[in-house]
Amino acid sequence: MNEQARRTIASYTTCQEAARAVDHPSDQGFPVERVAIIGQDVRLVEQVTGHMGQAGAAPHGAASGALIGWTFGLLDPVVSGLRPALYGLAFGALVGALLGMPVYAAQHGRRNFASVSFIRPSRNDVVADDAIAEEAVQLLTERPGGTGTSTSTSSGAWKSSRPQGGPAVT
């Protein structure tokens, strides 16, 4: 892929808003392969979902094992059908339950909670190659529900079309 100089043409608080903004130019036949959505100031968030005690370790391990067993059962190249997946599910749940408790005990209470991790950017910039940036800005401002030419970026409003500083973004 060629490295092109790019500039930020819009900024949004969510990736979904940025994707909706790019959808309109795509519908108009615009070369959206020259546009990117870049999450800025990315943070890893670990949301604690509850307490994990000795009693919860076995079911948690069983669920994880069942998922892995089901997946491998579905991918069995020798035997097709649902039976290998069901056997994989049952075997994975059994092994997961049996291993869940000793693994939890080996941690000596250092991590006695369950959590879900995800990545969250503080903003999502829509960038376009310099050669097509002006046309992209025009199409984005014409879209239904477009936000015009305001310079505020907290609600997904358009940025100026000045070049973005630093090295080229790909």
Summarize the structure.
With 170 residues, the chain is an alpha+beta fold.
Assembly type? single chain
What's the tally of helices? 4
Order of helices and strands: EHEEHHEEH
Number of strands: 5
For the termini, the CA-CA separation is 8 Å
Uncertain residue ranges = 147-170
Main beta-sheet strand count, sense and barrel state: 3 strands, antiparallel
Overall morphology: elongated
Strand order across the biggest sheet?
1-5-2
Average of per-residue pLDDT values: 76
Helix content: 40-55%
Percentage of β-strand residues: 15-25%
Q: Helix/strand/pairing class, anyone?
A: alpha+beta
Task: Note down, in words, how this protein is organized.
The radius of gyration is 24 Å and the shape is elongated. The protein is α+β, with helices and mostly antiparallel strands. Residues 147-170 have low confidence and may be disordered. α2 runs antiparallel to α3. The strands form two sheets. The protein has a three-stranded antiparallel β-sheet with strand order 1-5-2. It has a two-stranded antiparallel ribbon with strand order 3-4. The chain has four helices and five strands; from the N terminus they run βαββααββα. Helices cover 42% and strands 22% of the residues. The longest helix has 24 residues, at 83-106.
